[in-house]
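Researcher: Go.
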Amino acid sequence: MSTSNPAVASGPRWAISDSLIMIGRKLRHVRRTPDELIVSLLLPIIMMLLFVFVFGGAIEVGREYVDYVVPGVIILAAGFSASSTGTGLTGDLVTGVVDRFRTMPITRSSVLTGHVVSSLLTNLVSTGLVVGVALLIGFRPQADVLGWIAAVGVIALYILMICWLSMIFGLLAKTVQGASQFSFAILFLPYLSSGFVPTDSMPSFLRVIAENQPATPVIEAVRALTLGLPVGDNALLAVVWCLGIGLVAFGIATTLFVRRTAR
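Model: Structure:
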């Protein structure tokens, strides 16, 4: 017997209502099991403290190193948390929770929306905590209100891109551990960028990689916006990278989800 429910309510109002329910469900999970969020928050903070106080004095970037490195750490923190989005979906799939949802009159896409939007919200909160710690150790942003709004917008686009990429890995994996290992590859993007050292200090082959991947324009845009520096074309490149990869990942993830839940 098919487990699909032909009586699923349709229309934008039902889709929004179902998505809000799924978002609330995931946020309650985060509140009840905060260990993963704490780890994903502590690691970037430890990295920031390590670079600022251990390596910062030996790295010349033309300004206070803490001001240079914090945007990179913000993106690193966003990637740590967002990359775990797919593992949550894998857990729902392998434990039969999604099969249970299919017997209910809910919009199928709300399952994906719940995971992604809840991850976006928790990531933005953790990003704020990282910025708070950075201010305590000397980070001095010069952005006005519009600059901060633009910076948060770029960060949110990056989080959404990583979330949808992670969802693909979560749908391809057969176990939660497998999804976690797949998603781990995403975490290397900020390391191979201008997040911690200028790209012109890198060997030529690494410089080519660093200057032609999404994390670098995202970090450069956030750095310029928060420090009140000229943004140049970095904001446009960041938006193009994040929207382009994010939309493709969204299409692939939704297709995979439909195929996997149609069994």
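Model: The two ends are 11 Å apart (CA to CA).
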